[in-house]
C-alpha cells in the first residue's frame, strides 16, 4: 500500500509492503510488514517481505511433530534447500500440512490438498530416498524430491497436527542445555522463473494490475514472444487474493480446435466417442478459487470465444454432455503477442470478448529495454549455474550480451546462459569468443542506423494509430445501437453486448459517446 492509498491521512507518508505468515494448514498466523518513506519507492521491499514470511512458515513446517514425514520437492534439484521449495507434511499417507510453494507446484489449493492421500498428487512418493531424486507428478510434470523421516522437534518447539487445528501445543519443559548442532548455511538461489519488480514503472503497473485482479477485473497482458507474460501472471497469482487457489494455465494456441472445448469446459462420462470413462472436470472448473491464465488468447477459435464470454459473464460452466451448469469463481489473466484490437477490426476476434478481457491492460517491455540489463544477465547466469559456482563474464562478453537485441527476450537469454553455464567450469572466465556466433556478430548501431530505425518505427506505428481510431469508431457505433435497442437502459445494453455494466459506463464516459437515458 503506497502513499495516498492509505485511508488515514497521517499514514499517507508511508509505503508499506506486507506478506502473510501461514500455518501448515493454511491459516494466517500473522503478517510481516516492511514500511518506509513513500517518497522513496523500494522495489525490493515486497519481495523481501514475501521471502521472510515464507521462511518463517517453512521453519514451522520443519518442526511439525514426531509423526510427520516431510516431502521436499521442486522443478530444479538446486532449489530443494531454498525458501521456494515445496514442502508437504505427511501422516499415515495423507497430507496434513503444506506451504504455499507446494500449492503452486502442484497447481492446487488448501481445500483440495489437505487430508488427501499423497498418491493423488505424487503417485511414487513412497519410493523416494533421503537425497534428491527424480519424481513425476500426477499430471506428468517432472520434479526433483526427497523424503525426510519423522524426527523429534527440539524442546519448546510448537507442534502442528490435524487434531490441534493449527494451534501450537504447549512447550515441553526445558531439559538440560545442550549445544545445537551447527547447521550449514546456504545462500538462497535466485529464481529465474520469476520477474522481480525492477523499477518504479514496472512496480506501478504490477500494483495496478494486482488491484484490478483483486477487484474482479480481467487483466490482459500484451508483449513480444518470450517477454515474460506467464511469469508476470504467476507474480500476480502469488500477490493477489487468489494466491491460495491454483494457477491454471491454458495455451490456447497449443490445442487443436477439436480438443480445446473439451479441455476448457470438461465433459461428462460418455459425452463423445473416445472420451474418458470418468469424464473430465475441465480447466475452467480446475481454476475455481484461483486464477485462470489464458495464454495466446488470440489463437482461440471464434466459436469458442462465444462460450467463453458467457462463462465470464455468468460465472457458470456447463461441461459437454451435462444437464446443468456449475458455478465457478476465479481471477482471469489473458495474454497475447498479437494485436487483438486489429484482430477485432478484421473480424478475427470478437469485440465483446475483447472488451471483457481488457479491464486492465499491461504492456510488458522487451528484455532489450531494461535499464539494468547487465545486472540481470549476471543474476540469471548465477541462477542457471546453481547450485555450483557460476562462470564469470569478462567485460567484453558482458557488453556484447547487453548489446544483443534479444528477439526471443527472456526465454532466449535463459537458453544462452544455460549453455554457457553448462560448458564452462565453475569460476572460469567467459570471453566474447565463447558466445554463440549470432551474438558475436552483433555490432553497435551507428547514429545513422539508429535514426533509420527510429523513422521505420514511427512509420510502422501509423497504421496502428489509424486502426485504433477505426476500432474506437466501431465500438461507439455498437454501443449506440445497443442503447437504442434497449431505450438507453444500461443493464440491458450491457447484457446485449456481453460486457459488465461498469465496463459500459467507462466507454460512455469517453468524449463523443451518447448519454444513456436510464443509468
UniProtKB/TrEMBL annotation:
<keyword id="KW-0067">ATP-binding</keyword>
<dbReference type="GO" id="GO:0006355">
    <property type="term" value="P:regulation of DNA-templated transcription"/>
</dbReference>
<dbReference type="InterPro" id="IPR025943">
    <property type="entry name" value="Sigma_54_int_dom_ATP-bd_2"/>
</dbReference>
<keyword id="KW-0238">DNA-binding</keyword>
<dbReference type="Pfam" id="PF25601">
    <property type="entry name" value="AAA_lid_14"/>
</dbReference>
<feature type="compositionally biased region" description="Pro residues">
    <location>
        <begin position="170"/>
        <end position="182"/>
    </location>
</feature>
<dbReference type="Pfam" id="PF00158">
    <property type="entry name" value="Sigma54_activat"/>
</dbReference>
<protein>
    <submittedName>
        <fullName>Putative sigma-54-dependent transcriptional regulator</fullName>
    </submittedName>
</protein>
<dbReference type="InterPro" id="IPR002197">
    <property type="entry name" value="HTH_Fis"/>
</dbReference>
<feature type="domain" description="Sigma-54 factor interaction">
    <location>
        <begin position="195"/>
        <end position="422"/>
    </location>
</feature>
<dbReference type="InterPro" id="IPR027417">
    <property type="entry name" value="P-loop_NTPase"/>
</dbReference>
<dbReference type="InterPro" id="IPR009057">
    <property type="entry name" value="Homeodomain-like_sf"/>
</dbReference>
<feature type="region of interest" description="Disordered">
    <location>
        <begin position="446"/>
        <end position="465"/>
    </location>
</feature>
<dbReference type="InterPro" id="IPR002078">
    <property type="entry name" value="Sigma_54_int"/>
</dbReference>
<dbReference type="InterPro" id="IPR058031">
    <property type="entry name" value="AAA_lid_NorR"/>
</dbReference>
<dbReference type="GO" id="GO:0005524">
    <property type="term" value="F:ATP binding"/>
</dbReference>
<dbReference type="InterPro" id="IPR003018">
    <property type="entry name" value="GAF"/>
</dbReference>
<dbReference type="Pfam" id="PF01590">
    <property type="entry name" value="GAF"/>
</dbReference>
<dbReference type="InterPro" id="IPR003593">
    <property type="entry name" value="AAA+_ATPase"/>
</dbReference>
<dbReference type="InterPro" id="IPR025662">
    <property type="entry name" value="Sigma_54_int_dom_ATP-bd_1"/>
</dbReference>
<dbReference type="Pfam" id="PF02954">
    <property type="entry name" value="HTH_8"/>
</dbReference>
<keyword id="KW-0805">Transcription regulation</keyword>
<dbReference type="GO" id="GO:0043565">
    <property type="term" value="F:sequence-specific DNA binding"/>
</dbReference>
<dbReference type="InterPro" id="IPR029016">
    <property type="entry name" value="GAF-like_dom_sf"/>
</dbReference>
<keyword id="KW-0547">Nucleotide-binding</keyword>
<feature type="region of interest" description="Disordered">
    <location>
        <begin position="154"/>
        <end position="196"/>
    </location>
</feature>
<keyword id="KW-0804">Transcription</keyword>
Amino acid at each position: 500500500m503506497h502513499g495516498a492509498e492509505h485511508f488515514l491521512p497521517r499514514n499517507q507518508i508511508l509505503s508499506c509492503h506486507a506478506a502473510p505468515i501461514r500455518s501448515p494448514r493454511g491459516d494466517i498466523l500473522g503478517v510481516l510488514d516492511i514500511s518506509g518513506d513513500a517518497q522513496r519507492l523500494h522495489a525490493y521491499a515486497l519481495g523481501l517481505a514475501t521471502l521472510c514470511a515464507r521462511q518463517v512458515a517453512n521453519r514451522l513446517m520443519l518442526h511439525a511433530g514426531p509423526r510427520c514425514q516431510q516431502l521436499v520437492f521442486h522443478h530444479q534439484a538446486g532449489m530443494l534447500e531454498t525458501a521456494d521449495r515445496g514442502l508437504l507434511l505427511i501422516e499415515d499417507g495423507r497430507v496434513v500440512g503444506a506451504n504455499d510453494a507446494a500449492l503452486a507446484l502442484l497447481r492446487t489449493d488448501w481445500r483440495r490438498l489437505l487430508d488427501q492421500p499423497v498418491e493423488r498428487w505424487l503417485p511414487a512418493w513412497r519410493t523416494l530416498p533421503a537425497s534428491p531424486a527424480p519424481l513425476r507428478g500426477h499430471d506428468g510434470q517432472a520434479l526433483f524430491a526427497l523424503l525426510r523421516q519423522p524426527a523429534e522437534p527440539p524442546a519448546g518447539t510448537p507442534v502442528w497436527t490435524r487434531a490441534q487445528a493449527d494451534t501450537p501445543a504447549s512447550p515441553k519443559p526445558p531439559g538440560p542445555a545442550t549445544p545445537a548442532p551447527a547447521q550449514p548455511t546456504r545462500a538462497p538461489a535466485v529464481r529465474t522463473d520469476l520477474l522481480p519488480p525492477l523499477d518504479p514503472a514496472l512496480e506501478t503497473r504490477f500494483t495496478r494490475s494486482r488491484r484490478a485482479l483483486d477487484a474482479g477485473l480481467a487483466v490482459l497482458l500484451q508483449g513480444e514472444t518470450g517477454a515474460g507474460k506467464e511469469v508476470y501472471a504467476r507474480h500476480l497469482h502469488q500477490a493477489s487474493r487468489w494466491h491460495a487457489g491454483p494457477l491454471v494455465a491454458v495455451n490456447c494456441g497449443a490445442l487443436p480446435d477439436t480438443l480445446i472445448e473439451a479441455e476448457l469446459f470438461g465433459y461428462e462420462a460418455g459425452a463423445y466417442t473416445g472420451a474418458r470413462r470418468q469424464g473430465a472436470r475441465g480447466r475452467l472448473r480446475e481454476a475455481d478459487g484461483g486464477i485462470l491464465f489464458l495464454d495466446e488468447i488470440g489463437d482461440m477459435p471464434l466459436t469458442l470465444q462465444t462460450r467463453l464470454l458467457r462463462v465470464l459473464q455468468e460465472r457458470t460452466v456447463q461441461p459437454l454432455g451435462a444437464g446443468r451448469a456449475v458455478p465457478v469463481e476465479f481471477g482471469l489473466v489473458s495474454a497475447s503477442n498479437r494485436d487483438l484490437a486489429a484482430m477485432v477490426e478484421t473480424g478475427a476476434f470478437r469485440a465483446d470478448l475483447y472488451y471483457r478481457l481488457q479491464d486492465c491492460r499491461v504492456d510488458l517491455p522487451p528484455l532489450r529495454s531494461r535499464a539494468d540489463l547487465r545486472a540481470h544477465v549476471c543474476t540469471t547466469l548465477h541462477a542457471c549455474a546453481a547450485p555450483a559456482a557460476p562462470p564469470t563474464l569478462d567485460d567484453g562478453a558482458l557488453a556484447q550480451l547487453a548489446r544483443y537485441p534479444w528477439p526471443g527476450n527472456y526465454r532466449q537469454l535463459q537458453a544462452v546462459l544455460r549453455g554457457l553455464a553448462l560448458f564452462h567450469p565453475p569460476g572460469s572466465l567467459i570471453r566474447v569468443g565463447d558466445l554463440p556466433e549470432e551474438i558475436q556478430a552483433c555490432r553497435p548501431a551507428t547514429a545513422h542506423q539508429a535514426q533509420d530505425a527510429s523513422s521505420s518505427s514511427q512509420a510502422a506505428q501509423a497504421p496502428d494509430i489509424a486502426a485504433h481510431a477505426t476500432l474506437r469508431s466501431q465500438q461507439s457505433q455498437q454501443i449506440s445501437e445497443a442503447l437504442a435497442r434497449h431505450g438507453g437502459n444500461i443493464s440491458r445494453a450491457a447484457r446485449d453486448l456481453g460486457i459488465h455494466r461498469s465496463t459500459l459506463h467507462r466507454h460512455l464516459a469517453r468524449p463523443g459517446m451518447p448519454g444513456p437515458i436510464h443509468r
